[in-house]
């Protein structure tokens, strides 16, 4: 019971060949990228706006780092 013979009609056509390892690797990488994109945008209505805010914040941090006065940070402590 349960013998699977390739001589059965149409059985050869139903066999699925495994893809080349390079093709499979590329497909897995693409799927991982899609999952990351979906996960990063989950819960965000306007992903473009979030990216713009992030870029603007990075620019502000770069400006502050470039205009820093000798690493003092701009804060002064007064004792007494």
UniProtKB/TrEMBL annotation:
GO terms for biological process: negative regulation of ERAD pathway; negative regulation of retrograde protein transport, ER to cytosol; negative regulation of VCP-NPL4-UFD1 AAA ATPase complex assembly; positive regulation of autophagy. Residues 29-80 are annotated as: Disordered. Keywords: Lipoprotein, Myristate, Palmitate. It comes from the Eukaryota. GO terms for cellular component: endoplasmic reticulum membrane. InterPro entries: SVIP, SVIP_metazoa. This is Small VCP/p97-interacting protein. It comes from Calidris pygmaea.
């Amino acid at each position: 019971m349960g013998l699977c013979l390739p001589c059965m009609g149409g059985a050869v056509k139903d066999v699925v060949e495994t893809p080349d390892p390079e093709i499979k690797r590329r497909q897995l990488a693409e799927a991982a990228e899609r999952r990351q994109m979906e996960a990063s945008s989950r819960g965000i209505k306007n992903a473009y706006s979030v990216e713009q805010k992030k870029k603007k914040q990075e620019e502000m941090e770069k400006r502050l780092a470039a205009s820093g006065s000798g690493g003092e940070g701009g804060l002064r402590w007064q004792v007494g």
